[in-house]
Design brief:
alpha+beta; Cytochrome p450; 5-stranded mixed β-sheet; 17 helices; 53% helix; 10% strand; monooxygenase activity; transmembrane; transmembrane helix; Cyt_P450_sf; Cyt_P450_E_grp-I
Length: 482
């Protein structure tokens, strides 16, 4: 009986302590937190969301949550308390509020590094963003059109011409990787580039994962691949720094991104970025410039296979441009300005299948939105599809209609509704670079080839980027030149 009494006393004591701690935790939290649940410790709703993304792209999961709790709800993602916000007003709050800073999941931070533009704010963010924009200035981009044109021509000749079938997504990813390797890192084709390409694919696989560095997990494989990729970029940075010291002012900053970043100085003549900052942001540029463009072009190919009218209008636009050029003459910046219909097709593709599912911010202080409290340190999460597929914003949202973007100043869509590239001070700095890649590639693709889909399913999964079934295999044949 004495033993039983001790056990009962311990249980009562433990229960009392637990109730006391829960009461204190509840008292410490604001009374007007959003509706919802944080779920299990650490795991929260992470696995549920990841399963949904790999099932139907995740949009239904988000919409079900909005239907249940409304446009503001609390949950836990990747080990952190989170508030999901939905709608144009929420997007505007996310992009412009000074109380929020970008916040990537811990898995992304560990893979890309602590000094990436994705997680900087204030003066550090402005400094790094300004440095990246120095490389992405319009006058610099104009010089890269011809080099991108050469990479696209070579890629299509080596990987598309003479084949009966190709798989689009991996080929588009390799094309954009080769373009970025050449223009951003000055890395020529060969074994180093091939190894970096393989590590890059493995690096992506664990970016949205529970950050448990255990053997045989996607996150563990991504960390190892990230380490190898980082060592390659560190070696490239050292080589280019040595070359700059050797050649002095004669070394041109126009050659590639790393050379450009190494050459930048502040008002006191000191380097604007450290080597570590350059490597971390080169990793970000590798991902940002690779996945978005390759996925966009893959889904354009998928749509055009079943939309004869849109394809015919694109072919006509590109044939008119080609008629005014000499045989084999590279595209120019002026040629790209004439590809207005093609870019509208790209924008409509981005609206229906945005490459980036959503993104995170972190509350720098206690902040309120729509009557609900968001405590300091919590994540805030937004997704593009909530507004992109809203029938009250885009009429018949499932219908593919490039004319939506014909005259955007007259569009009825409220600000911060089309957010494929984000918005506000952190809008993607590589928009124009992505536009060049897309327009140049589609120019040569629609003029040289016809294609049919091998898979009829009009579906895709996210892992975390969208991917069509089997990578989109297609049957192709050469077009007869007009």
């Amino acid at each position: 009986m004495d033993y039983l009494a001790v056990v009962v006393a311990l249980v009562v004591t433990a229960s009392s302590i637990a109730i006391h701690l829960l009461a204190r935790a509840k008292k410490a939290q604001p009374a007007n937190l959003p509706p919802g649940s944080l779920g299990l410790p650490v795991i929260g709703q992470s696995l549920s969301l990841l399963r949904a993304m790999r099932g139907d792209g995740g949009s239904r999961w988000i919409q079900d949550r909005i239907d249940r709790y409304g446009p503001v709800s609390k949950l836990s993602l990747f080990g952190t308390p989170t508030v999901l916000l939905a709608g144009p007003a929420a997007n505007k709050f996310m992009f412009f509020s000074s109380a929020l800073s970008t916040r990537q999941p811990r898995s992304v931070q560990r893979i890309l590094g602590e000094n990436s533009i994705l997680d900087l704010h204030g003066a550090d963010h402005r400094r790094v963003r300004g440095a990246l924009l120095e490389f992405l200035r319009p006058d610099m981009l104009k010089m890269y059109v011809g080099r991108i044109d050469g990479e696209v021509r070579r890629h299509l000749e080596e990987n598309w011409a003479g084949r009966a079938t190709v798989t689009v997504l991996p080929l588009m990813k390799r094309l954009t990787f080769d373009i970025i390797s050449a223009l951003l890192f000055g890395l020529e084709r060969g074994g180093v580039r091939d190894a970096l390409a393989g590590d890059f694919v493995r690096m992506i696989e664990g970016m949205w994962a529970i950050p448990a560095n255990l053997p045989f997990t996607a996150f563990s494989r991504s960390l190892k691949a990230s380490g190898r990729a980082r060592r390659v970029l560190e070696g490239i940075t050292r080589e280019k720094k040595a070359k700059q010291l050797e050649h002095g002012k004669a070394a041109s900053r126009n050659n590639d991104l790393i050379t450009c970043l190494l050459s930048l100085r502040d008002d006191h003549g000191e380097r604007l970025l450290t080597d570590e900052e350059i490597v971390d942001n080169a990793m970000v540029a590798l991902i940002a410039g690779h996945d978005t463009s390759s996925i966009l072009m893959t889904f354009m190919v998928r749509h055009l296979a079943n939309d004869d009218a849109t394809l015919a209008a694109m072919v006509q636009e590109h044939e008119e441009i080609a008629r005014n050029k000499g045989d084999g003459e590279a595209l120019t910046w002026e040629d790209l300005t004439k590809m207005k219909f093609t870019w509208r097709v790209a924008q409509e593709t981005l609206r229906i299948v945005p490459p980036v599912f959503g993104n995170f911010r972190r509350a720098l202080e206690d902040v309120e939105f729509d009557g609900y409290s968001i405590p300091k340190g919590w994540q805030v999460f937004w997704t593009a599809n909530v507004t992109h597929m809203n029938a009250s914003i885009f009429q018949e949202p499932t219908k593919f209609d490039p004319s939506r973007f014909e005259n955007q100043t007259a569009s009825a869509a409220p600000p911060c509704s089309f957010v494929a590239f984000g918005g506000g001070p952190r809008i993607c700095p590589g928009i124009e670079f992505s536009r060049i890649e897309t327009l140049v590639t589609m120019h040569h693709l629609v003029r040289q080839f016809r294609w049919k889909l091998c898979c009829k399913e009009n579906t895709f999964v996210r892992d975390p980027m969208p991917s069509p079934p089997r990578g989109l295999p297609i049957e192709i044949e050469r077009r007869t030149p007009p």
